[in-house]
Fold each of these.
Amino acid sequence: MEVRVRAPGKIILAGEHAVVHGSTAVAASVGLYTYVSLRFPTPSDNDDSLNLQLKDMALEFSWPVDRIKEALPEFGSSLSPTPTSCSIKSMKSIAALVEEQNIPEAKVELAAGVSAFLWLYSCIQGFKPVTVVVNSELPLGSGLGSSAAFCVALSAALLAFSDSVSLDMSQQGWSVFGESELELVNKWAFEGEKIIHGKPSGLDNTVSTYGNIIKFKSGALTRLKSNMTLKMLITNTKVGRNTKALVAGVSERTLRHPDAMSLVFNAVDSISKELSAIIQSPAPDDLSITEKEEKMEELMEMNQGLLQCMGVSHASIETVLRTTLKYKLASKLTGAGGGGCVLTLLPTLLSETVVNKVIAELESCGFQCLTAAIGGKGVEVCFGGSS
Amino acid sequence: MEVRVRAPGKIILAGEHAVVHGSTAVAASVGLYTYVSLRFPTPSDNDDSLNLQLKDMALEFSWPVDRIKEALPEFGSSLSPTPTSCSIKSMKSIAALVEEQNIPEAKVELAAGVSAFLWLYSCIQGFKPVTVVVNSELPLGSGLGSSAAFCVALSAALLAFSDSVSLDMSQQGWSVFGESELELVNKWAFEGEKIIHGKPSGLDNTVSTYGNIIKFKSGALTRLKSNMTLKMLITNTKVGRNTKALVAGVSERTLRHPDAMSLVFNAVDSISKELSAIIQSPAPDDLSITEKEEKMEELMEMNQGLLQCMGVSHASIETVLRTTLKYKLASKLTGAGGGGCVLTLLPTLLSETVVNKVIAELESCGFQCLTAAIGGKGVEVCFGGSS
């Protein structure tokens, strides 16, 4: 018995940083996935363990199911039908289970991910022996929501075989969850994100769960109905960032220049709203797809300027901007800035030759380039064989 | 009898483009000069011509004084004590005089400069034979106010020997003009600028005449009393720009995104005001020079971001930004953008070694680098030998 789930990453189209200061932001799912497959052993397998394989890191962890039962006696008999937060007591027991696996101390995030895995597994599946295989197209820690995609895919895969969810297992290929199932997946994923990040905004798991494009302001999320397909080049500068320090830097600059910065945040709010309006405007309306793309490019360029005004750019981001500008393509950083990823809109009519040229030039600078559609479906499930 | 005059160029410290939309801007003189020397022939020289030597272009023009008298009969007998605009009739006669000198048709700006020269000479000096030598440290047409510096230096040199101005010719070295003389120089230079540019703002000639730092908003100029010496690296990208097209581009973007752009212009206004306040704050106050420089750097970075938001950056500007960012130096474009010049603040405590490294790296990209103090004196005069 096997289930395979995929959950997309996210990008921020407009409004990062300014959203912390009350502006509207717009996020979208990106067609790069984290895959989680779940396989229950048959009695003849004679396997009584919980196995976690992280393919991208070539890592494998294994616990005898009885060991988990012993460490977390509060679970197993009564599964949690509604998502709950991990108590400090459970967290300590989980930490002990993680420690037994000899994860290098430097890999704090990996340990946090494994902890989230153990929590979601215990809550949703109890202590059934199972093998979980994870692989991902999302670069880790680069602001594309890789941890949320992991939590969403994992929650969905675990829920697929739980009593909380009823799915049509006879369907072929990837299929979406129902509205109530999605809500459950999203809530569980959020609990996982809390274990990994402490105080996540909930945006990443929501985008990964529901897909499409989401507007958010002051903690409230609104799902937009997008009427256009957008293709983006995502350039991972591979420059590590300290998100907390970048957010604090913007706040400090705001204290030093309150008038100018408040105007900048309001300008971002206006840009996010314009962007949302374009995305939602009816498909065949007075604006052609090219006109819409040009408007979006202009708004991206404007937002990038405002992000530079906030002081969150970086030499590596400037290099990407300068390179794509040569090809008359609009780019902006996405997420925290200070490195991380840069978005470049690839217009529908842009030739593949130009795209390849830009990618070659960016890769020659040592960057990693990915192309993906944005605003596509959220988490999807596939039963049976591989897909 | 000889007089030598030097007039500085200008840079815009903050507010370019936004000033067109009502924001405050701040300009400063830059310690790069256009030199004009005037030598009257002695009777034994037997020279009855007006000679203009443009040293930087290795060009020389010469007219018999009688030829000018014939072409411009309205001048000579009564010199104009107050600056007046060139009439269409005079402009036509001057055009004929310029045409006789076989200036290549492509050099429209050169012809305009020579026209301004003939106008100022005829108005201020009548038809005395004289040799005028011009050389300049300012790159032409790169937004550093080279034409205004030419008009200011020329007007000042011509006025130095006129009845309108009384100067102490016994002074050694460079000396400044009196307040009323400066006013006259500035007005004449503005008339010259009108011949070259059509509708100049008057900012460039005012900065070149008075020096120091000037705040301007909605056409009104305020001279600031600066209390700090600032050193700038000026990088000439050598990318030619179309100022009119850039200004029009910002206006078009403003029509497309009125809300966002109006907030951006207001943010620039706030930045210009903050900058003016720092510049004017008393010398030994609670802020050390380093703290002031850091504040200015932050404001320059913010202004640059807002200029990028307006869409007036350019790949060459990005290259300069990226390069100086590596050395933790703040830069912004100055003037119209789309190429042209980029300013980089050189903090007082920055080592010469680092400055040389940055310059070497920028020059290896094909850019021209100049370093200069900003906010220094305006037009100055020197009698007798060279200085």
Amino acid sequence: MAVIIHVDFPHNDVWGKEMAVQMNELAQSINNEPGFIWKFWTESKKDEMAGGVYMFDSRENAEKYLKMHSERLAQFGYSNIRGKVFEINEELSAICKAPLQ
Amino acid sequence: MAVIIHVDFPHNDVWGKEMAVQMNELAQSINNEPGFIWKFWTESKKDEMAGGVYMFDSRENAEKYLKMHSERLAQFGYSNIRGKVFEINEELSAICKAPLQ
């Protein structure tokens, strides 16, 4: 059953189009991760944070990705990385028009 | 421009179908919030947390909703509610097949 990952971390560097240029190759590569379905790339200049919301096909694949990605972010120099895997309540999400698989 | 809200909080009560019965009316009502587009209802028995990922049409509407919803959750007895509004990096999200509006 599909799951959601939420990740965020303090960030105060590039934003928007500049981020899109820097991260283009990484974004392409995420499409090849086992069980990956989609990712919203998120950023908040107001709160000086960046992150992502992902859908994966299973908790197992999501947790493997989250571990690898958290280590990669730490290598990029990020700290205080917060990442959680959640099951989806499909009945309630369907009422609220969520784009379920 | 559409934004994402992420909310989560400690929860160790009902899950899944039982949650769906209890929260049905609230879920219906969220469809009427100004600027609301969709919500994933999320839950993690493993981490004893529940929450949501929302799309709203603007940061202004998202922040108004988040303030009201955080107060409502506190009235329900929840504490340590974490909620953040993020802009979407549309270029990177499109590469990663996110369901953009």
Amino acid sequence: MLTRELIWPNSIVVVGASNNISKPGGKLLKNLIDNHFAGQLMAVNPNEEQVQGIPSWPSVDELPPVELAVLAIPARFCPEVAEILASRKGTKGFIVISAGFSEESEEGRKLEDQLVAVANKYKASLIGPNCIGIITPAHASVFTTPVPKLHQMGCDFISSSGATAVFIMESGIPKGLHFASVFSVGNSAQVGVEDVLEFMDDVFDPETSTRVKLLYIESITNPDKLLKHARSLIRKGCRIAAIKAGSSQAGSRAASSHTGAMASSDAAVEALFRKAGIVRCYGREELTTVANVFMCKEMKGKRMAIITHAGGPAVMLTDALEAGGLKIPKIEDSPQKQALKEKLFPGSSVENPIDFLATGNAEQLGAIIDACDRDFKEVNGMAVIYGSPGLFPVGDVYEVLNKKMHTCKKPIYPILPSVLNVKDDVAHFIQAGNVTFPDEVLLGRALSRVYNTPKPHEDRIYLEGVDIPEVRRIIDHAKDGYQSPEVVHRLFDAAGIPRVQERVAQTKEEALAFAEELGFPLVMKVIGPVHKTDVGGVVLNVRSAETVASEFKRLMAIPETTAVLMAEMASGIELFIGAKYEDRFGHIILCGMGGILVEVLKDVTSGLAPLTLCEASSMIKNLKSYQLIKGYRGQEGVNQRRFAEIIVRLSSLLRFATEIKEMDINPLLGKGDKIVAVDARIRIEK
Amino acid sequence: MLTRELIWPNSIVVVGASNNISKPGGKLLKNLIDNHFAGQLMAVNPNEEQVQGIPSWPSVDELPPVELAVLAIPARFCPEVAEILASRKGTKGFIVISAGFSEESEEGRKLEDQLVAVANKYKASLIGPNCIGIITPAHASVFTTPVPKLHQMGCDFISSSGATAVFIMESGIPKGLHFASVFSVGNSAQVGVEDVLEFMDDVFDPETSTRVKLLYIESITNPDKLLKHARSLIRKGCRIAAIKAGSSQAGSRAASSHTGAMASSDAAVEALFRKAGIVRCYGREELTTVANVFMCKEMKGKRMAIITHAGGPAVMLTDALEAGGLKIPKIEDSPQKQALKEKLFPGSSVENPIDFLATGNAEQLGAIIDACDRDFKEVNGMAVIYGSPGLFPVGDVYEVLNKKMHTCKKPIYPILPSVLNVKDDVAHFIQAGNVTFPDEVLLGRALSRVYNTPKPHEDRIYLEGVDIPEVRRIIDHAKDGYQSPEVVHRLFDAAGIPRVQERVAQTKEEALAFAEELGFPLVMKVIGPVHKTDVGGVVLNVRSAETVASEFKRLMAIPETTAVLMAEMASGIELFIGAKYEDRFGHIILCGMGGILVEVLKDVTSGLAPLTLCEASSMIKNLKSYQLIKGYRGQEGVNQRRFAEIIVRLSSLLRFATEIKEMDINPLLGKGDKIVAVDARIRIEK
């Protein structure tokens, strides 16, 4: 719920405005003035007629109507002031920079709830509390610096943390990063990161909207909303990078103590970002470097030319890019390559990296870039490394670079390492509107992160042969806890997940009858104990009625055993599918190969339900053990399409059965087209 | 061979000195003057009586005696000039900054060889050619900027690449990194990175020498020398970080085209660095961040306190540190913790991270640091995060930090993110001699790199029961190519590597006789085909003479088969040991579990021969499949000490048999104390 009045207000009042610009209420007003808010600006301060030259009222009661209010007053006064403004002055936007709310105490939480109630009642937007404010093209309502000069095609930046927002801007600005807007959502009482993103999606205009969004998130409150709008924006041509802090256990503890919010499980975040197409970053420098990559033209492919006047950085960049899966192809021989070589000094190399030597000049750089852009089809983008040993300025070189950044069709990533020797030339290059990458390896890693983040897949749920009403009937009748094999079988049958034929024998006579029905060889397993193998509760390859009888007796004597499961003995490669329900995110699905590969080597990949066939296939392909699934050294593999379909069917089943909190299919046995679930555990919690 | 005259000359001549400081010969002289070389400074320039106020001679012939000469003249003149200086002026140090030598052409290589011959003949040191020069406390003989003001306890920095040396200094200086010396070795014609390190090892003085060394290496010419002196320096208390560029295949191509040197295989570099205790870095920013970590006191342990006035960066740092294996332990309850809490504002947290809020002040920071240093035994070091939203300066806080950096026993890592808002305060903090870390995650990763680099192990070769003369006899008599089982067995017996009993049968009669000798069950395998299993050339669990006879016939009919190997059938966990000879480095030894774990999942660890027991044990422990080796779910594991000993015995064997270029023991079978080699391939190339 972001109102026009919040983004494009005609009038703003700063409640708690001050002449002291070391105070938030003073600095915020100063920022509004310095950044030329064009509408009516007012202040509320009980002791002044004017604050910083702006007309001031002693209290909000006397104010004329005002569209946006910034509250810089103690928390306990905020709800009442907001009520007056919303009810009597028509205010539809609130930015509450005051702290002392839910992040501090239970009492503060109540005040925050009251604020939200006021905003909701009057359909007003509420940003904060406990935030630094927002910067839109209309107004800079923040109490911090720097206040970046906004650029329409800069990045939209939304942050859960005010201080971190400041530090991220301080990391980006010196590298030439521009901003189109900044939103610090603080405690996200009414408007969270997801809501701002939704707003950006709703108002997206392909002609005028920026295509880069940066997020700093401490807690994902509404994963569905984040997924929906991130995916939608990316499909519209946007690129999104985000930090979700709190990926480690201790980090989550720190995140919780900071925002008072429960941290989400990191695997779920990982899966969500991948599904949405969000480039995940882990630090400020990384985020702003990825942002600068986004500010360059998009690279259509993974083959880079490295253009350099110094060998070392080119080698390090090559290493970083190749480690990330990108390629530095050799430039193929051609008349154009020969012509370029003739323009360079003897000893230059027009292989790749293209090294035009320490003495290489501006004109030569122009020729190399043109050749890469027009002639060398084998490259999709260029990194240009040009520093200075400090003998003379390099402004002419950077001017060529500046021009080519605008005219070339392929992206150019400028690496300008000489932040001391040609400080002024670098500053001038940035002032011309360009980004720079001071460190080639940080660029290489950022490019790799971007390259390795898949575009979002289609989001249609696969339902062929999945009987949702039947799934619901089974779930609705199930009791909490681990389910009996019968329930598991019915669920699998309802979702079209193939399984081995099984029977549950309570008596020796039943066991013998089932053996006859299923045929030999058979498997017999205890029902009851959790780790069946550890207690000797699994018998494979049972081939006679006598063995059925003797083993039944032995198995029933194992503690906790309530019955014996009889099953046809399937064969093939052991596969694994697991799922875990994460609060708010839904089910994380894992797949891999069974046995030690999942238990010891943890070779699993994950995705967020519901999965598409394409997503499930990519999960399978990303397994380290993929080669075994394809078939290895004469052993028949499994049909991957079929394995993917089973994963997808399970994910569709789970989408309609959120009461299933945990489940494993371990193993499925697969040989060619035949893949069957052999054993499964499902835990329901309503 | 680094002479006193190179490092501490009483007189220097710049040959090719110029009044134009845009020229290397002009800038170098200027740097010598500006940095106050205290000895006699001279110039050679055919057209001037004085250059930049320094007396000049028309040619070297007329010069008085001079200890160090810097040559900034065309390559073709250098050998002759050097000869005159060395033979007639007593010059014992040469720094050749001219290019146009081996890096450019075959002709240049000859000039370079002549230069080296001159230097060697007169026992003079030669730095370069094709370098930027060196900076020692006595003289700044470089033609580039920046010329850092040297600090005795800054870092010694040695670089293969001049431009990269400049860019690394430009990366480090703004973060407060100090240098004690800088060596750019260029083409390393006589003196390479290893030789400078040797010199530093030889002159190391525990009272006065700096303990931090940084290396940028494009090619490791003498791995043994690098290993020896890096290890020696680290044992003396030094810390070394290095970039070895060219880790990827394409990167190596780039490195080769740059220096004209063959790139070393990256696995060997990795193993060498680990063995020496060198912290490996991959980029400039990473190297200078690790260097700044080294500039702080050494952390004795892995448990960090994070002290912050802002939540976000603390969470991201926690994530980065935990991902790297470090710990952020909760601060235990104690009267000291309670007392500290009372000094902080309400809402502060004295768990860990210790968050003293946006309003936290200098006095509180001092109290927190003191408590962490003195009272909180559960932490070994502190990261302090303190930026500014731009409301007021924070000089008082940084002054406290500055004082505590010097007085505390535990290391403090200062993270000052507000590079714009409190730029002057940060600059002042750096001017006081401190380092800073602008980005907490880059610090976290650097600390992790340092923490995860083991200290060097002892370097004694394990020889108990390894019969070196016998090994040499076998090798000397062996032909090139893959060896017969007999040769393999004799080598293993000589090194004390246990193996299954085997016999080679050429006829059915022999096969039957051996079966009787070895006893059943037996394994029979073809000799000849390389992938024995793929051609159906392995028969397990042979239990009768009839089977021996029939399988012998079948196996001999398989193409390329020359005989059949008969072996006792061992059982247990499949293990793997492999080795590969890398030119100049020696043997890289790999270990892991056999079968798919090595072939598909590539779960191997590596080390450089000769290995110690301790190194081999750590290779085993670092396997992903380590849990299986220990024993898993009721299956007996293997005695790790015994496995490590076999790895060490193999590495000792190889140390004396460099003719072995490749070998695999695959599998070894292990059960408890019994580990035996079942199959092995050894390729010799003399």
